[in-house]
Amino acid sequence: MDWQAVWLSIKLALSTTLILIPLGILIARWLAWGRFRYRAFVEGLVMLPLVLPPTVLGFYLLAAFSQQGVLGHWFERWTGGSLAFSFTGLLIASLVFNLPFAVQPVHRAFEAISHEVREAAWCCGMAPWSSFRRVELPLARNGILGASLLTFAHTLGEFGVVLMVGGNIPGETRTLSIAIFDRVEAFDERGAAIMSLSMLVFSLLIVASVYALVGRAPARRD
Question: The whole model's pTM is what?
Fold first, then answer.
């Protein structure tokens, strides 16, 4: 077991989840309750990383993170570092390709909340922020928890974007999925099997937990 890769994967997954879930909650609520033009386009843009081939997404991110790219040039100018083939760049890429997993479950959870519930909170004198914090968030907690689990698990298992943007630098960008690929290339079948089995068991537990949460989610009553 490559424990350095395991720790780096957990660090990346945890960082991605902690940053992306609050942002995902705001986007999901906006999509669930907002009324605006081009709604379908915005929803499609959010879901795009889910259907786009990882190599395509990784290519465009790598181009943006390079010294000739807008983000890469700006980052190097202000920090002196590089986004490409670094943990920081890997984290930003992780935020992009995990966006659908952070938004979609929460979006559905907010859509399941009845309009009457929100109106009743307002009639009781609650301000919009209080209604959001004390009424909407508790009712959407299963969706938020499910999004957190999916985001964490998907970050651990992502390969294509990670390899394109981060490469294979030990201690910096070599995640567990890259380490498994290395073991296969080195004909270390036992090492690859151990790490793959660990990922399989963990992923199964995550998916089962998400389905359990979805099963307990209340149906919307309009």
Answer: 0.82
